[in-house]
Amino acid sequence: MQVVWRGVISLGIIDIPVVLYKATETDSGLALHQVHAEDGSRVRHKLWCEEEDREIEYREVAKGYQHPDGRRVVLSDKEPATLPPPDKERISVLASVDDGSIDPMVLGQAYHVGGSDPMTDRFYVLLRDTLRESGRVAVTKVALGTRESLAVLRAHDDLLVLQTMSWPEEVCRPTGIAPKSDIAVRPQELKMAMHLMDILSEGFVLEELHDDYQQALQQVVADRLEEMAPPRHADVTDLMALLQSSLEAVRSGRADATPARKTAARKTASAAKRAAVKKKPATGAAAAQKTTAKNTTAKNTDAKNTDAKKTTAKNTDAKKSTGKKTTPRRAS
Predict the structure, then answer these.
(1) Torsions phi, psi of 158, nearest 5?
(2) Residue 76 CB partners (closer than 8 Å, separation 6+)
(3) 178-208: string of b/e by CB count within 10 Å (b at 16+)?
């Protein structure tokens, strides 16, 4: 159940923390909206200024009063703030009266009262049992929403129940609508009427009653909905088909991308193999062949260097043996 109010029950100097839950629901049936009869679209109410014959915004709206003689009083935002605010967090117990002294006609919305602090549950139980044993109800004052109202607090089973009341000036006094007072009922007629009421009450169970109109209305709406195709986005039956189509699309996309991925994979593998061959050290016969080749190359290089040195030495000796001493000429 949803909490609709939090506060305390003020009993003298004792504060009992409580929460309120709605005990009855008046909007449990189908919620019908005002729509355009031709196309079923919602009809919206606009803020319309009669004096200027135009639509206005919500920020332009204020609270006011029009006297029967035509005078208008428009209240500013500051004026309501100066009024004594109702205590919105307290159920103030004013007095207790006999349960039968409250006219059921003045009773309104009922609320289950639940305790909100285990430390004060003893005071909750004390108030509940006091009201039950005395056969009385507590008259209280409470502000639910923006308006303060009277309410009665009574024991109901193992709970306290709060039920709002109309203010005395809100009760309309009937005048001139009752049957004429000179009409008399004979005792035999009264007895037969009481017997009829007894027969009608046989087997009656209040909990089995239901709202026939709401049930019939729900059936009418259900029948009309069956005649209409549901909107595409709300078609739950097509969910499996949509999932299957999505799955096939994903598979098709992967299949188209497979050859490219395979070619790229092969190129990557070949490059990796070449890199591994270059970096991997030779072993076994391959290593021996590489070592022999290196040694042979080194020997050939040494032999070439030795032959070159011998050739250079021979040429030097030949020049020494055949060379002549040149005498410089004197200038004449």
Answers:
(1) -100, 15
(2) 62
(3) eeeeeeeeeeeeeeeeeeeeeeeeeeeeeee
Closest by CA to 90, choosing from 12, 170, 167, 161, is 12
- Let me know if 96 is exposed, middle or buried by CB neighbors in 10 A (0-12, 13-18, 19+): middle
Task: List, in order, residues 6 or more apart from 34 with CB less than 8 Å away.
Answer: 42, 43
- pLDDT, tens digit, for every residue of 246-289? 888 888 776 665 555 555 556 555 555 565 545 545 444 444 45
Residues in the chain: 332
Secondary structure letter of residue 26 according to DSSP: S
- 23 Cβ contact partners less than 8 Å away, ≥ 6 residues apart: 109, 110, 111, 112, 161
Residues facing 100 on adjacent strands: none
CA distance 317 to 225: 124
Chain centroid to Cα 14, Å, comes to 38
